[in-house]
Design a protein that fits this description.
The chain has 183 residues and is α+β, with helices and mostly antiparallel strands. 25% of the residues lie in helices and 12% in strands.
Length: 183
């Protein structure tokens, strides 16, 4: 059953009708904050980003800057299947595939680019990847850039592992010199 609640609205007096009292109260709050921050700037909750990184919660699962995972032998886990680029709603991922000379069955990304100026950080590329090759777990929040090229991430900046994962030493150099597979 729907009930009806009657509200008794009292009529506004003269000060409330011309809003002078409310304007004075708002200005007093603004001036109080202004002078407190003027004479005690150390107490302001300001972070000098990007010089000071923003602290993230320890166990929270944030979607942060992209990375391509690397196998223990230094080759990228990505097999250039284009599922991440297909699933991306912003069309910010560009991939060019190449084949290994000694293994024509498996492909690798000859170029892999993510345009952070278009990325909406939705994580669809991570969910679509069947090889678990792309991740958004670096805890680096993508910030602004002075040029558009600063927002483009290429394969060399994407190929890396986090501490505790297999080494990535020379991963990009091995691909540039013609990767030959596991020895």
């Amino acid at each position: 059953m729907i009930g009806v609640k009657k509200i008794n609205n009292k009529p506004m007096d003269l000060l409330e009708r011309i809003y002078l009292w409310e304007i004075a109260r708002g200005l007093s709050v603004t001036m109080r904050h202004f002078f407190r921050n003027l004479f005690n700037p150390k107490a302001m909750p300001t972070i000098q980003y990007p010089e000071e990184p923003i602290p993230l919660a320890g166990n929270a699962k944030f979607r942060t800057r992209h990375r391509l995972k690397v196998r223990a032998d230094g080759s990228p886990k990505c097999v250039a299947c284009f599922l991440c680029a297909t699933a991306c709603p912003a069309y910010c991922i560009k991939i060019e595939a190449a084949e290994y000379p000694d293994n024509p069955v498996e492909k690798y990304p000859a170029s892999f680019e993510v345009d952070l100026s278009r990325c909406v950080m939705c994580g669809m590329c991570v969910e679509a990847c069947p090889e678990d090759a792309i991740a958004m777990d670096t805890k680096e929040i993508p910030g602004g850039s002075l040029s558009r090229s600063g927002l483009m991430m290429d394969k060399n900046t994407l190929l890396r592992n986090l501490p505790g994962e297999p080494s990535t030493l020379g991963a990009a150099n091995r691909l540039a010199n013609g990767y030959r597979g596991v020895k």
